[in-house]
Amino acid sequence: MTVCAIEITTAAPFTIAADGSYAARLAGTGEARYPERWTLGGPEPYAVPLPLAQPEEADSEVLPLADGRVLIHRRVARRHAFALLYPTGSTRAGWRTGELPLGSVEPAGEGVRVSLLPPSPDGGSAFALAASDTETTVWRVAGGPFGQAARIPGRCTGGVWLDRGGRMLALDRELGGIVKAVAVDLAGSGAFSPLLQIADGSNDRLLLADPGSGLLLIRSDAPGTSRLGWGVLGSSLPVRFPECLRGEGGVPFAVQPGQALTPETCAVALRLEDGGLGLWRPADRRVFRLPAPAGWLGAGLWSPEGRLRLPYSTAEMPCGIAGLTMPAAPPPVRLEPPPAAAAPRPVPLQQAPLQQAPPPQAPAQQAPPPQRPVPQVPVPQRPLPQGPVPQEPAQQAPLPQPARV
Q1: Helix, strand, coil percentages, rounded to 5, for the chain
Q2: pLDDT in the model for residue 233
Q3: Distance of alpha carbon 157 from its chain centroid, rounded?
Q4: What is the pTM for the complete model shown?
Q5: Helix (H, G, I), strand (E, B), or coil: what is residue 75?
Q6: Are 64 and 22 in contact (CB under 8 A)?
Q7: d(CA 302, CA 294)
Q8: Which residues pair with 85 in a beta bridge?
Q9: Handedness of CA 14, 18, 23, 27 (dihedral sign)
């Protein structure tokens, strides 16, 4: 459902499976630590303790699988052992736990740090990272033959999955004093290739990715200082560094599953430095700051409907889930555009002036031109006759003659 960061700033790291079905943490304090599995797929969450004959060390790591088993990583002297834990039933004394050893890794040199990678999206595989100053090895510890999956020159940290099948893994590789994210193919020969190259001398780390929408959350010092930015996997557009994220030292830990071609609508949850929550979406251009619920375990996941689920544990509620919804962004302020000026009359190209001509002015009123006087020619008048006017005789029809008998 989402990709969650595995590094948690709380005392007890809490890891959620890639599909959101289970979670696991190392519960307890002091010398009474034991693995605990949370079931998140049902209507209400519940926790199942997985204790063994002896308590676990504080530096042990746990990771849930999609089938309900919990992978545990222990350090035993110089070796790093891996095993699967699962509940076998309950008694009056408590829960019984089964254990299946998987194998161990013994680093060859000093200064090698071995840690679990985030849960694989396929739900059944698990990988560990053994990193030294000169070389990093990716180990497959569950879901296949135990052994090396890839070897990369340089010291690698982080770990973000780029696809839903658990094949492409992104790591932050430090080589020559510069950190660049690389993509590693774990299904083939373990080949790797550059993933982020914002600037030649910049440190570019990948923090989070959503395979559905392609949204990438990045931290880079390419803008001059270390800033949060976002981009799209496989896109030719540059990485963007929003002003609302300037100065934010938080860590993104969950991104809302989205659809292709709409990464700007995916909500992102940030774990802020002051312990609070930050909710952000690229399309909103602002960060909503909210108080974290009491006993929050530092992780969470988004539902496709946009509901953020935050696990917490308190004395009153040892296993609880708090829900939050992304606040609605205020509507943008619409500025009325200035009135459009009258479109100028097009000028033929061969008559276009070399310099801008002054605006046309209305022609001045001119007096009408003087007209030549027309000469007056006297018209001769014919004298009227004096006396009565003779009348022409009117024509009369002939009278009828009487007929002769």
Answers
A1: 0, 40, 60
A2: 93
A3: 22
A4: 0.78
A5: strand
A6: yes
A7: 19
A8: 70, 99
A9: negative
